[in-house]
Write a structure and sequence with these properties.
The complex is a heterodimer of chains A (273) and B (288). Chain A has 13 helices and no strands. Chain A is an all-alpha fold. Chain A is globular. Chain B is mostly helical and 288 residues long. Chain B has one domain. Chain B is 75% helix and 0% strand. Chain B is globular. The chains are: A mainly alpha (273), B mainly alpha (288). Chains A and B meet through α2 and α8 of A and α2 and α8 of B.
Chain lengths: 273, 288
């Protein structure tokens, strides 16, 4: 095998293993990670219920599942290099032959594997407690889910390069981004039923919004007819694929620039604003 | 007097930690965006329920929106500052600030109380701002004016309720902080659990009576439920009598403001483990 490809794959494997081990090595993390999305989903389910719309409960729990991944992207992908920089790990990444892109891909894969148990647990609890009406088209659900995660984690990679040049701002920006992006993406409700067309169009630049729209259309339905508009689902899938590729390319480009800058000037590793 | 001085210094530390990295306007704006968004999420769900469900009539809808806008913003307010002692301890252990505070003459209670009060002040501003913005957005997005009672009397009474609630929130914060002193594992997660439980049990989004027994009783003994009820009574119904009833109940349930027993116990336990004496003499590490 090409030595560069070999190093790249070994780095991906190593970073995936570390991240996965950090979750599976302490199974209590699953219970810990499921906590906040569960209570939020539960509260919003009861709100749906008290508003007389029990068929909306599925949206609350699907939102909880996807918020687990969105939180992981923000706090364990975008911020990770910034924390690594503070702890002195990033210097090791920069000076080692390990490609940064491989580290990020490994982090993403590990993040998905590590978040999956809590997300699945949440979905099971929601199903047992409320048995929300679902109308799934599994092949489309699988494609949509995979593409949503791919574009979300690609966004996390792009953000990680951006956060790298910042210090304490990164945490505050994360806190400010989490809820508004969830709201605009219609994580806990079908945005098409609540937002005007202009707001829906603006939200289409957010991978989470596109992914949620497609997942809600392929999994759930508020009306009993169960008829879904597949054209919109295919539009979302196409958008997600384009976003994933664009963000991956942007992340790789931005990191290459920062990596070069860091190696030449040493500015990334020593600058903490 | 020196206790007050420590308290004021800690308030300044809290503000510096929250806003020192940027200018205050940007700092407050970033802190206001999240509660606005979470309030709007709850309001949007109610709107979808109103449009597609059968439980809410057109006459009830504006009041229901008011019910949620007050509950959601006050819930965000409580959860924003009640976990500050945990944050101060957990972050302080990592940055070695807290062991220094711990070994100082006045020790940790004034420091944690000051951090809590700093967060209370900033969270009050952001919560009121998010309440106002959510009312305006609701008008544009749903075409409904939320009928809030905004008079000098109602605003003053609401201000009193916010202050009375400090004791309950600070006690919760100290309880969580006690765990953060004891452990160096999952201490970040505990406040999110408690915050999630409060979302369900503090009547932030729906009446606790809609929960099955005995869960409905849990909400009724929480001081935060009474605080939110009192605020709704004065801001939504304009009922001063109900306000004082709920606030009186909340005040009655408040614990000792500064030193809950669990916190004292954990501090004493750490002290005796590390030094074998009542007070540490040189340095204490909290990193287990």
């Amino acid at each position: 095998m090409n030595p560069r490809a070999s190093i790249w794959l070994k780095t991906v494997y190593a970073r995936t293993w570390v991240r996965t081990k950090s979750i599976y090595g302490e199974p209590l993390w699953v219970a810990v990670n499921v906590g906040f999305p569960f209570f939020t989903s539960l509260a919003l389910s009861l709100l749906y219920s008290s508003a007389g719309l029990k068929s909306g409960i599925g949206f609350a729990f699907l939102g909880g599942v996807m918020v687990s991944f969105w939180g992981n992207v923000l706090w364990s992908m975008a911020s990770q290099f910034n924390w690594d920089k503070q702890q002195g790990l990033f210097e090791l990444y920069i000076t080692s032959p390990a490609p940064i892109s491989a580290i990020l891909i490994g982090m993403s894969l590990g993040g998905i594997l590590g978040t999956a148990p809590s997300a699945i647990t949440l979905a099971i609890i929601g199903w047992i407690l409320f048995a929300p009406p679902a109308n799934p088209m599994w092949p489309l659900v699988a494609v949509t889910f995979a593409l949503t995660l791919a574009s979300l984690y690609a966004m996390g990679m792009a953000l990680s390069s951006l956060y790298l040049v910042y210090g304490r701002e990164a945490d505050s920006v994360n806190e400010a981004l989490h809820e508004p992006v969830s709201f605009l993406s219609g994580v806990y409700f079908p945005a098409s039923l609540a937002f005007p067309a202009v707001l829906q169009a603006i939200a289409l630049v957010i991978p989470l919004a596109v992914g949620m729209d497609a997942l809600q259309r392929t999994l759930l339905s508020l009306n009993s007819s169960g008829i879904m508009d597949l054209t919109l689902v295919y539009r979302d899938i196409l958008l997600l694929a384009v976003m994933g590729i664009t963000l991956l390319f942007a992340a790789s480009k931005a990191l290459k620039i920062l990596e070069e800058k860091g190696r030449r000037a040493g500015t990334i590793a020593v600058r903490l604003r | 007097m020196s206790y007050v001085r420590s308290l004021i210094a800690s308030i300044r530390v809290g503000w510096s930690r929250d806003f020192g990295w940027t200018n205050p306007v940007l700092g407050f704006s970033l802190k206001t965006v999240a509660p606005i968004a979470s309030t709007m999420t709850a309001l949007t769900i109610l709107y979808i329920g109103f449009k597609n469900g059968a439980s809410i009539t057109s006459a009830q809808f504006p009041f229901q929106l008011g019910y949620i806008v007050i509950g959601a913003t006050l819930y965000a307010h409580i959860s924003a500052y009640s976990w500050v002692p945990t944050l101060a301890i957990a972050e302080g252990k990592w940055t070695f600030v807290f062991p220094q505070v711990y070994v100082s003459t006045k020790s940790s209670p004034p420091y944690l109380a000051g951090r809590c009060l700093a967060s209370f002040a900033s969270s009050t501003v952001t919560s009121i701002a998010s309440l106002a913005v959510a009312v305006v957005i609701s008008l544009f997005l749903f075409g409904v004016a939320i009928p809030l009672v905004v008079t000098p009397l109602s605003i003053s009474l609401f201000g009193v309720a916010l202050i009375v609630n400090i004791f309950a929130s600070m006690r919760l914060g100290f309880l969580l902080g006690a765990y953060a002193i004891l452990a160096s594992k999952f201490e970040w997660a505990l406040p999110t659990y408690v915050s999630g439980l409060l979302m369900v049990f503090s009547e932030a989004l729906f009446p606790v009576s809609s929960l099955p027994y005995p869960f409905s009783d849990i909400g009724n003994v929480l001081p935060f439920t009474e605080f939110i009820r009192a605020s709704r009574a004065v801001l939504l119904q304009g009922s001063v009598g109900s306000y004082f009833y709920y606030l009186g109940t909340e005040f009655y349930r408040r614990p000792h403001p500064s030193r809950p027993r669990a916190f004292r116990l954990q501090v004493r336990r750490k002290e005796s483990e590390k030094t074998g004496s009542a007070r540490p003499q040189s340095s204490v590490t909290f990193l287990n």
